[in-house]
């Protein structure tokens, strides 16, 4: 279990680092676009599309590591008043439900990317194919799904050991 957990955490970090790279690329693109527009009166062609695509990548790829750090919003007002074993069991159940939901989301986003690839969908201005970006977002969802699976197993083990 520790090996699988370490693999998922490592993969999450790699995706988070890629998200950081795309965030920096977005910032550089915006600054260059502003400078070119102000100085030479010629903006970067398709900057708006590139910023949108890169921002989607940043969000999709950073989800899993955010889950590893347990940094997502958590409403635990009711759960805090329950016994520790019941809290762990409830957390495990919620994580299992979330894992199933994200697995379905990742699957359908992947199917959507496949349909984009088959139809040849490209961005309107720059004619960049969109499907690679959508596949990367599906990968980010899948890795986040694995993070929640690991967390679910850990909560179930915790609930079993506390009893």
Distinctive features:
mainly alpha, 163 residues
Explain what the structure shows.
This protein is mainly alpha-helical. It has one domain. 78% of the residues lie in helices and 0% in strands. The protein contains four helices and no strands. α1 runs antiparallel to α2, α1 packs antiparallel against α4 (131-161) and α2 packs parallel to α4. The longest helix has 38 residues, at 2-39. The protein is elongated, with a radius of gyration of 20 Å.
Q: Layout of SSEs?
A:
Layout (H helix, E strand, L loop, with lengths): L1 H38 L7 H22 L15 H36 L11 H31 L2
- Annotation, overall tally of beta strands: 0
Q: pLDDT below 50 for ≥5 consecutive residues: which ranges? A: none
Distance between the termini: 21 Å
Helix content bin? over 70%
What amount of the residues lies in strands? under 5%
- Shape field: elongated
Q: State the major sheet.
A: none
> How many discrete structural domains?
1
Output mean pLDDT. Answer: 92
Series of secondary-structure elements, N-terminal to C-terminal: HHHH
Q: What is the assembly state of the chains in this entry? A: single chain
Rg to the nearest angstrom? 20 Å
Class from secondary-structure proportions: mainly alpha
Tally of helical runs: 4
In short:
This protein has one domain (2-161).
